[in-house]
Amino acid sequence: MNFRSTLVIIIILVGIMATYFLFFNEPADDTPKNDKPRISETYDLPRKDIQKVRLAYADNAYQTLTIVKNADSMWQLTEPFEAHTDTAKVYELLDDFLNKHIKQTLAVADYDQYGLVKSTIKIELWTDPKNAPKTFLIGEKGVNYSVYIKEQSEDHIFLIESSVFDNLTKAPADIRDKSVIKFNPNSIVELQYQKPEELACTKDGDRWKMTYPLTVNADTEEIEYILSELNSLQVSTFEADGENVTPLLKKYGLDKPRIQFTLKNKNKRYELAIGAAVPPTSDQDNEDKENVYVHAIHQGGIYTVTDNIVRLFNKTVFDLRDKRVLDFQRSDTIKFEIQKGNQKIVCLKLDDTWELQGTKKTLADTQAVSDLLFGVDSLEAVAFITKPEKKLAFYGLEKPSIRVIFTVQGAAQTAELHIGNYTENNTAYVKSNVSDQITRVKRDLIDKIAKGETWLRNKQIFKFNIDDASRISVKYNNDSKENDDESFTCQRLGTNWRLTFPVKENANNAEVNRLLYELIDLRAEEFIGSSFTNNSNDLSDTIVGFNSPQMQITVELRTKKVYTLQIGSLASSSNYYARLKNQPDLIFLLNAEEVPKLRTKLEWLRDTEAE
Q1: DSSP letters of 270-321?
Q2: Where do the structural domains in the chain lie, given as residue ranges?
Q3: Tens digit of pLDDT for each residue in 259-303?
Q4: To 10 degrees, what angle do helices 366-377 and 443-450 make?
Q5: DSSP conformation class of 468
Q6: CATH number for the 330-456 domain, one of 3.30.160, 2.60.40, 2.30.30, 3.10.450?
């Protein structure tokens, strides 16, 4: 081999080695990764200072993205269309880029070899939108999971982790805020419906008012619930964006939407239309939630969302008006009256209890009073008589059959519920004393009010302490097939009990005391009859079983006061008729589950420890 051939071979080998070291091998760098500078440090780009970002891609499948921070420090997509972004995702994108470590810096002459003339990704970062940005060109991948990158104004290039491709390759949907409408529910001051019914509501202080087609109070709680739910409702898919979506409206059933409404705050208007249901796909699970198409008219977007939005916004005038009949502060109520004709029931608040005022003052049932106050305060119309064809007398409200009058501490006037005629569909006509509006309400509460004192009186049957009892007698109806128990009588001697009938011996104190505690805790389920009638009830002793009660319990106190409880026949599968013998007309119902607890056997009462 001559000298010339040898020289050619050497030159070729040198070229191969140079190419390898230039393109396929990075010089050894033993510097720990944490000691290598970050992009943010090298180019003075703290994330908090970034005000604008633009990402451009060589691949035409990806759109150029421009994201700008607004005056409220929220990120807004401005290109390829305007939309709110998910701030957390924008910050994640910035962190992924700015925190990349600069592995190595290279001085090169030919940028094209590194893919930096026609870069794969170009990212521009502005700390001040009025000044020129810092522009970074991202080229081809190198070895060891690296990629070549260049700051546009510099001559050298450098290497960073190749994960930057995944970090920066984004479609608009990847960074968008998925809120159907991005707004602050507390800032909304006007709600307008175009469909299914035309109506308008405005916010007045903390309350909502309906201004069209009626001027009435709106249901503030319902409107606030709707706004809160809408604020949290998320887009399932983004179908189309931009202002020119009009040709697509018919395709998605949005040219004639079934629901359309507008929200307004002091500075902005939001308008949404709800169209057709999204057709199910062949591979869709039957349990998957169904979606519908919606059109964000204020920003030109068409999305799909869960069909919960239909339930949420399918509202009428009736749905959004305030349906409460009477508005008063039940917690500040100190007195109420129930008037029926010339009769009335008066109940006064005494500290934490209520007392019925009559010829004989009695404690009221705390739960019943609470049910009355809460029930009337929350009583809602099931229908409004918006154009009364008759006078008040037709509805029984010229001279109401019942008036419920509440005296509220600090209020200038009483709050009154006027109750008129009943209707065939289990409702009644009512109105308040401060409104001409006639409404129909369900009769559940009205029927309880009509019972008067029998509903409101204290349901506790016995009023004594266990140490007050001196004698107890239980008599069973021996003809009853329900039990073979024997009647008995016990007498207290000091702190112990002694059987005096049918045997004379010490009694089982625990069993006697158990029975007494059951009596002390015994409560009526309901009193029969009405205190507004002369006769509390028209039930004969034969019907209720008091002519031959299945059980009669007599408790005599040290004060010589005597209680005798008579338990008659079954009123229903869940209740027994009962009464106190000295109040024969005051019949009440006992829970059927409580009656067996009042039974005992002689063998249980005998003192097993007696010698």
Answers
A1: EEEEEEEEPPPPTT--TTSPPEEEEEETTTTEEEEEETHHHHHH---HHHHB
A2: 30-175, 185-280+287-320, 330-456, 466-605
A3: 999 999 998 999 999 999 999 876 655 556 789 999 999 888 899
A4: 140
A5: G
A6: 2.60.40
